[in-house]
Specification:
GO molecular function, one term: helicase activity
Radius of gyration: 11 Å
Strand content: under 5%
Protein name: General transcription and DNA repair factor IIH helicase subunit XPD
Keywords: ATP-binding, Helicase, Hydrolase, Nucleotide-binding
């Protein structure tokens, strides 16, 4: 069993692009993904 930091994997994408659209079929709880990926949502 291992735990990976998802923000490390997505950081190159955030660094390369000014805007990133993240979609999911299960965005619940809504505040989970910004915390996991270390970003500030616009909405």
């Amino acid at each position: 069993l291992s735990c990976h930091d998802a923000s490390l994997a997505i950081k190159p994408v955030f660094d390369r692009f000014q805007s990133v659209v993240i979609t999911s079929g299960t965005l619940s709880p809504i505040d989970l993904y910004p915390r996991l990926l270390n970003f500030h949502p616009v909405v």
